[in-house]
Write a structure and sequence with these properties.
- The complex is a heterodimer of chains A (247) and B (263).
- Chain A folds into two domains: 34 residues; 210 residues, Orthogonal Bundle (MetI-like fold).
- Chain A contains ten helices and no strands.
- The model of chain A has no long low-confidence stretch (mean pLDDT 88).
- The mean pLDDT of chain B is 85.
- The relative contact order of chain B is 0.18.
- Chain B has a domain of 154 residues: P-loop containing nucleotide triphosphate hydrolases (Rossmann fold, 3-Layer(aba) Sandwich).
- Chain B is globular, with a radius of gyration of 18 Å.
- Chain B is of the alpha/beta class and 263 residues long.
- Chain B is built from seven helices and ten strands.
- The chains are: A mainly alpha (247), B alpha/beta (263).
- Chains A and B meet through helix 7 and helix 8 of A and strand 6 of B.
Chain lengths: 247, 263
């Protein structure tokens, strides 16, 4: 039987932060395991000045969210075709199938080999990943919309494309929004790994330099910043979904 | 006097199953319905579950392909037409639209030339008993009212035939009686031919002017019963008489528990 949780996620996280502060700020300020909170806070300045946080962060964020936006727009435009059986869906299905067995990292390696340190390649890579997984998800969700919801519409002389655009697309939107949250995390991981290998602009490059300089406090600060960003995006998506997609 | 003439000749439907064997759903269905468009009528197709009633209705609506010939007023049906509207058993409400928007929806996205004027919508909403519920969402109203939305949506475009796929099955007794009454009112008001598929003998007797009995595996119409009403209403004695006739008909086909008996 499902047990109700006694403590919320926030209580546990605040507890862990307090434990970290007490343990590493007051009891074990000098150690090689975890930096003390005050040092981590100070490392934010290092990230801004030495690691060029703003430009690198902007590069990663724009690659992730631009690719996500482009994918959603393309899926909206191509939706009747994506949900049908044609050459486009065959390609998407094949790419999705391949991604189950071939890690995306190999694709990124090839891209980096062909176009080293290219920012455009990063965008193309992110868009390709985003579009493939989104369109596969959209197709899957569309196929699972109850047939009864649309079976009556043809008798009103409403075409299959109109049904897909006006009913099926609308019906899958709440679940597609849920998928955005997963997609966000997945894209962050993919793009950061790409940048880590590519050595161009981006959070991945910052992380590579941090490890190169053994800068543990900057690493923890980056982790905190990325977590806050991903969490905020998820909350924004949940807010939009709850406000506008009540069905 | 104009008429609604629905003619079905040698209708069949089959498909290949997963093993590659031909499965016959409907076989040699012949039906000739002539209804005065000055009065309208309700006709039932009575058959057990899984006999192909839904398939038959979808074929008549032009939604599914078939073998044979179906014509409405001597015009062969090959594709969906606004003259014949299909109402499925459930799930046909768009949850993001309120009652009025749900009723208007097919018109708002339709490319048909004969679009409906908005003042007509108010009239239909009133006639199906949905006045005051226009701003409600389907999830906020009970199933009887949801069925009224489907009826309003269909009536709005003034079709000649409305096909109703076992729509009363999931309703409670009281709601079912309300809908039976409403269907009779709408028939005389809009002069439409309603074709109802059902598994319920009593329901078919109470509602219909004519009942077609259908077998299972494959689906085949084997008997036609005309329900006569002297005073317009129907009492329990008449129901019992027709019920016996229907049950005898099914037994003669080797089907001993074919359909639900009571309301």
């Amino acid at each position: 039987m499902y047990k109700l949780r006694k403590y919320s996620n926030w209580v546990i996280i605040i507890g862990l932060l307090l434990l970290w502060t007490i343990l590493f700020e007051l009891i074990l300020p000098v150690n090689s395991v975890f930096p003390k909170p005050s040092i981590v806070m100070q490392s934010f300045n290092d990230l801004l000045n030495k690691y060029f946080l703003i430009w690198n962060f902007l590069s990663t964020v724009s690659a992730i969210y631009t690719s996500m936006f482009i994918s959603v727009v393309f899926i909206w435009i191509l939706f009747p075709h994506i949900t049908g059986t044609n050459f486009l869906t065959d390609i998407v299905m094949s790419l999705e199938w391949s991604s189950r067995y071939i890690p995306g990292i190999f694709l990124s390696m090839l891209f980096i080999y062909w176009f080293p340190k290219s920012e455009v390649t990063k965008f193309i890579f992110a868009t390709l990943i985003s579009f493939t997984s989104f369109s596969y998800r959209a197709k899957y969700l569309a196929e699972n919309v109850p047939k009864e919801l649309t079976s009556w519409l043809p008798s009103f002389e409403i075409s299959s494309n109109q049904i897909k655009r006006n009913v099926v697309w609308k019906m899958i939107q709440p679940k597609l929004f849920d998928y955005l949250i997963k997609q966000n995390l997945y894209l962050w991981a993919s793009v950061v790994i790409f940048e880590y290998m590519n050595l161009g602009l981006g959070v991945g490059t910052i992380l590579r330099n941090i490890l190169l300089y053994n800068d543990l406090s900057a690493l923890v600060m980056m982790l905190i910043l990325i977590t806050i960003f991903i969490y905020s995006f998820s909350q924004l998506i949940k807010f939009i979904k709850n406000k506008y997609y009540f069905w | 006097m104009s008429e609604i003439i629905l003619d079905i000749k040698n209708l069949g439907k089959s498909f290949l199953n997963d093993s590659g064997l031909k499965h016959i759903v409907l076989e040699n269905i012949n039906l000739h319905l002539v209804v005065s468009s000055d009065s309208g009528s309700i006709v039932s197709i009575l058959a057990p579950f899984g006999s192909g009633k839904t398939t038959l209705l979808k074929i008549i609506a032009g939604i599914e392909k078939y073998e044979g010939v179906i014509s409405l007023n001597n015009k062969v049906i090959t594709s969906p037409s606004r003259k014949i509207i299909y109402i499925p058993e459930k799930h046909n409400f768009l949850p993001w639209l309120n009652v009025r928007q749900n009723i208007e929806f097919p018109e708002t996205i339709s490319e048909a030339k004969d679009k409906i004027l908005s003042q007509k919508i108010d009239e239909v909403i009133h006639n199906v008993g949905l006045s005051g519920y226009e701003d409600f969402y389907p999830s906020d109203i009970y199933s009887g009212f949801q069925l009224r939305i489907a009826l309003a949506r269909a009536i709005l475009i003034k079709p000649k035939i409305i096909l109703m796929d076992d729509i009363l099955r999931n309703l409670d007794g009281e709601t079912r009686q309300e809908i039976v009454k409403l269907l009779k009112e709408l028939t005389s008001q809009y002069k439409i031919l309603f074709i109802l598929s059902t598994t319920n003998i009593t329901e078919s007797i109470q509602l219909s002017n004519r009942i077609y009995l259908m077998t299972k595996n494959p689906g085949r119409i084997f008997k036609e019963i005309n329900v006569f009403r002297d005073t317009g209403s129907i009492n329990s004695e008449i129901i019992t008489r027709y019920k016996d006739e229907i049950e005898m008909g099914f037994k003669a086909q080797g089907m001993f528990q074919p359909v639900l008996v009571s309301l």
